[in-house]
Amino acid sequence: MNKVLPCLWFDKEAEAAANYYVSLLPESKIVHVQKSPIDYPGGKKDWVLVVYFEVAGQSFMALNGGTTFEYNNCVSFMIDCKDQAEVDRLWSQILKDGGQEVECGWIRDKFNVPWQIIPSDLSRMMADPDKAKATRVMAAMMTMAKIDVAALRKAYAGD
Fold first, then answer.
1. How far apart are the first and last CA of the chain?
2. How far is CA 43 from CA 7, 32, 118, 130, in A?
3. In this structure, what are the phi and psi dihedrals at residue 10, rounded to the nearest 5 degrees?
4. Burial class, 27, CB count within 10 angstroms (exposed 0-12 / middle 13-18 / buried 19+)
């Protein structure tokens, strides 16, 4: 387990959320489900209290805190996608499971957690020292919800 790991707060959906997240990417798994030994403000004895899980090797904890808090974009989880096929697969899966498109590669899952589904090509093109190329790529990205790699490459090339 990582020394520092993100903790996702849920009312009572921690286990469902963890199971959903580990279904998204390979090398993901539930590590441990901890039930509460006593009643607590958000739940009862023997209810799931925390779930430790890994998504693509990144450790997380999901907590059943017994109160609903709204997630916002101050913290999100970015998935670095190798190609358009991976972008499309993740985007489609999150949407079909109750997600919501946002913009510029951002999407919210069925638990309202914000994600960024970003192809590696976008990061590479945006870091190009040729500011004209980076500007065209940024302008193209600003028109998208789901990132379109071919359109970004076209903008990068100046076509």
1. 46
2. 18, 19, 37, 55
3. -130, 160
4. exposed
pLDDT tens track for 101-131: 999 999 999 999 999 999 999 999 999 999 9
- Nearest 5°: the CA angle 117, 119, 125 is 130
- For residue 139, count CB atoms less than 10 angstroms from its CB and return exposed for 0-12, middle for 13-18, buried for 19 or more: exposed
CB 28 within 8 A of CB 21: yes
Question: Can you list the domains of the chain with their CATH numbers?
Answer: 7-64 (3.30.720.100), 77-157 (3.10.180.10)
Rounded distance, CA 91 to CA 107, Å?
8
| Strand-pair category, 114-119 with 77-81 | parallel
Q: Is the alpha carbon torsion for 72, 8, 58, 92 positive or negative?
A: negative
